[in-house]
Amino acid sequence: MPATDLAGQPRPAPADPASSAVPPGARRVLALSTVAFTLMFAAWLMFGVLGLPIRDEFGLTDVELSWLSAVAILNGALWRLPAGIAADRFGGRVVFTVLLLATALFSYLISLAGSYGMLLLLAFAVGFAGNAFTAGIAWNSAWFPRHHQGFALGVFGAGNVGASVTKFIGPVLITTTAGGTYLGFVEGGWRLIPVIYAVLLIVVAVLLWTMTPRQDRKPGAGRPLREQLVPLRQVRVWRFSAYYVAVFGAYVALSAWLPKYYVDNFDVSLSTAALLTATFIFPASLLRPVGGWFSDRLGARRVMYWTFAIMLVTTFILMMPNGHVVVEVSEKHTSSGTADVLPYTIGLWPFAILVFLLGCSMGIGKAAVYKHIPEYFPTEVGSVGGLVGMLGALGGFFLPPLFAYTTAWTGLPSATFFVLFLLTLACAVWMHLTVVQMLHEQSPELADHFEQPTTREAHV
């Protein structure tokens, strides 16, 4: 008797991991889910640009502004595990449509907010959009065979580029429409942006519902929920989550934080800051398919080594504060006083180039992390991917306030990158220790042979 879904209808079998053929409908799922995810990601992180005119209108402090972005990120993290499981059980088509319509409603309501408290509430609500990621990972994993999953998930994940949409359209629309009223009830300025997103989200919801296959793939349908959650007990899942905090949580946090960083520290306009931030967002998003391709061919762990190496180098340079060392001069050798030595400063363009390289490494690393999941957990992508995505996005929630507090405590804006350096270092050390332990377990006869080769080695 053929397997059935929860409604008693026949359901297709999950994609055969050994098969190299892409089933009919898979590319439509990938294309439309990527478009939907891109738009929802744009709505999710809209406060990265809207936050500055909102700060001026409501008289917010930097810490208050950081929490406005943080609560949106928080809600985009909390439901990632349930969203991934729901996509496995009920199909990504249903989950995506619900998320699109809910995000459209909350996005429109943001345009009506009249107080900081209401903005916080609605920013949290619109954060539901961020949960589309794990739903899309589970959905596309169900439709694509193993040897195509790295690239397919990389293409879908490139929807992170939605973070740059507001960076491009926001400053121009805010400036040119400020003070106006449209359609008799829509205010111009920053309030126009969420209304535009609301309309686009509804349009994409209709397209996705009508153009993706009605006979969806639901690898988790009929399986006990407890069975889907069993893999979450493994330390490996939590280690992948830590990696994802470094490559995705930090990406989300910087996407929201960089416009303010450029404006405050390099004295550029909001539009220039938005464009410079886009030079970080684009590689951190569009290189995700490249990271998936490399992971398919070279192995995800090797790609992660390179990712962490580049992140460590760039964040180490970026965390160095501008200034100089003050040395007190002794009267015994010369006239008393002080001397400034070892002056250091980083200009706008060297800073932007380093941030660009940081974005490149994050884009490739994000795909490498998720390549691990269908390899180790082919039938629990929804639950494992959901937990990894949830904890990664929670990193994006905690990091912006941490940036603000560490900057306030130290008086150094570059403390932002010191936080990222420590996070990356911890993940790199954990990964390397795990690899060393794995190699020792597989070849225990080599575990203590540091100097003298074994008999087997002597003949190689």
TrEMBL record:
<dbReference type="InterPro" id="IPR011701">
    <property type="entry name" value="MFS"/>
</dbReference>
<dbReference type="GO" id="GO:0042128">
    <property type="term" value="P:nitrate assimilation"/>
</dbReference>
<feature type="transmembrane region" description="Helical">
    <location>
        <begin position="270"/>
        <end position="291"/>
    </location>
</feature>
<keyword id="KW-0472">Membrane</keyword>
<feature type="domain" description="Major facilitator superfamily (MFS) profile">
    <location>
        <begin position="28"/>
        <end position="443"/>
    </location>
</feature>
<protein>
    <submittedName>
        <fullName>MFS transporter, NNP family, nitrate/nitrite transporter</fullName>
    </submittedName>
</protein>
<keyword id="KW-0812">Transmembrane</keyword>
<dbReference type="GO" id="GO:0015112">
    <property type="term" value="F:nitrate transmembrane transporter activity"/>
</dbReference>
<dbReference type="InterPro" id="IPR036259">
    <property type="entry name" value="MFS_trans_sf"/>
</dbReference>
<feature type="transmembrane region" description="Helical">
    <location>
        <begin position="190"/>
        <end position="209"/>
    </location>
</feature>
<dbReference type="GO" id="GO:0005886">
    <property type="term" value="C:plasma membrane"/>
</dbReference>
<feature type="transmembrane region" description="Helical">
    <location>
        <begin position="116"/>
        <end position="139"/>
    </location>
</feature>
<feature type="transmembrane region" description="Helical">
    <location>
        <begin position="381"/>
        <end position="403"/>
    </location>
</feature>
<feature type="transmembrane region" description="Helical">
    <location>
        <begin position="65"/>
        <end position="83"/>
    </location>
</feature>
<dbReference type="InterPro" id="IPR044772">
    <property type="entry name" value="NO3_transporter"/>
</dbReference>
<keyword id="KW-0534">Nitrate assimilation</keyword>
<dbReference type="InterPro" id="IPR020846">
    <property type="entry name" value="MFS_dom"/>
</dbReference>
<feature type="region of interest" description="Disordered">
    <location>
        <begin position="1"/>
        <end position="23"/>
    </location>
</feature>
<dbReference type="Pfam" id="PF07690">
    <property type="entry name" value="MFS_1"/>
</dbReference>
<comment type="similarity">
    <text>Belongs to the major facilitator superfamily. Nitrate/nitrite porter (TC 2.A.1.8) family.</text>
</comment>
<feature type="transmembrane region" description="Helical">
    <location>
        <begin position="303"/>
        <end position="321"/>
    </location>
</feature>
<feature type="transmembrane region" description="Helical">
    <location>
        <begin position="240"/>
        <end position="258"/>
    </location>
</feature>
<feature type="transmembrane region" description="Helical">
    <location>
        <begin position="29"/>
        <end position="53"/>
    </location>
</feature>
<feature type="transmembrane region" description="Helical">
    <location>
        <begin position="341"/>
        <end position="360"/>
    </location>
</feature>
<feature type="transmembrane region" description="Helical">
    <location>
        <begin position="415"/>
        <end position="436"/>
    </location>
</feature>
<feature type="transmembrane region" description="Helical">
    <location>
        <begin position="151"/>
        <end position="170"/>
    </location>
</feature>
<keyword id="KW-1133">Transmembrane helix</keyword>
<feature type="transmembrane region" description="Helical">
    <location>
        <begin position="90"/>
        <end position="110"/>
    </location>
</feature>
